[in-house]
């Protein structure tokens, strides 16, 4: 799933650096461990809706750990109204950030190229990569500079 990282700078100014996405901008010494340089960081919370088969569910995601260098993240997904038995369901997930280390092709969990193409094709942000995502010379550096972070999550257990 792609997550858009929109610029929230006054006047809509855009830059290629992560500092352009944060208000106020982070300090100059943001190379320190633990200093957030994007909207995706350990402790970040996101709220929205998940749509499935004509239904919409309120969701909240809390990122427990985000490691951009290793293209890894994990956290909790809370879904409201999924079933009457469990009005609120919380699950723990681990995820891969799409990168050279974790390409668009899953190559596990019984997913093949057709499954991946169908899944990623649901997201408009993927359209520009649809013809080249399985290429040996795909430019994953281009993803780092884009407006979206693509990732796949795998639910590990319900809490």
From TrEMBL:
TM segment ranges: none
Pfam family of the protein (one): Vac_ImportDeg
GO biological process, one term: protein targeting to vacuole
GO CC annotations on file: GID complex; vacuole
Organism domain of life: Eukaryota
Family: Belongs to the GID4/VID24 family.
Record-given protein name: GID complex subunit 4 homolog
Organism of this sequence: Mauremys mutica
